[in-house]
Design brief:
The chain is an alpha+beta fold. It is built from 6 helices and 6 strands, in the order E-E-H-H-H-H-E-H-E-E-H-E. It has one domain.
Length: 133
């Protein structure tokens, strides 16, 4: 499980590693690098192939979004400036129509896309940033 929170822990939500991957794939598709992202993170891809796709993606999208897509699932910290950029990018993202944003974790149903937007909004607004572990 991944817990996403602001650094003061006034807002948090949980999701599985699988949902995290599916959400990142949807965000990558929304910014036009979906297929490349899937190729770069697929199992069994050689280091050379992965590096090629990662470099391709890095040139096509904003750096904060790149950090979000390739951030470690275990532990990641986003500073206030990165939260500002990610909030604006995610808020304007048009997710693929086949992506279901409603998920249920620990009996709680919520909109995953809205949860990430809210986490980054609070992280930038309160000046505390966002982290997950």
């Amino acid at each position: 499980m991944v817990t996403v929170t602001n650094r003061k822990r006034t807002y948090e939500f949980d999701l599985s590693y699988g949902y995290m991957r599916v959400y990142r794939c949807a965000i990558a598709k929304a910014f036009g690098v979906g297929d490349e992202y899937i190729h770069s993170t697929a199992w069994g891809v050689t280091q050379e192939e992965s590096s090629y796709w990662v470099n391709f993606i890095e040139k096509k999208i904003p750096s904060s979004l790149f950090r979000f897509l390739f951030a470690c699932d275990s532990v990641k910290h986003f500073r206030v400036r990165q939260c500002e950029e990610l909030y604006c990018l995610l808020k304007s993202a048009k997710l693929p129509t086949d992506f279901n944003t409603k998920i249920t974790v620990y009996g709680k149903t919520f909109d995953l896309h809205e949860a990430f937007i809210e986490a980054f909004r609070i992280g930038r607004h309160k000046g505390v940033g966002v982290e997950w572990w």
